[in-house]
Amino acid sequence: MDSSSTNQRRMRSGAVALGGMGLLAATLVACGSSDEPDKRCASRSTLQHLNNKECKTGGTGSYYYGGYVSAGKVSGGSFDKSAVTRGGIGGHSSSGSSGG
Question: Which has the closest alpha carbon to 67: 83, 90, 89, 45?
Answer without folding.
Answer: 83
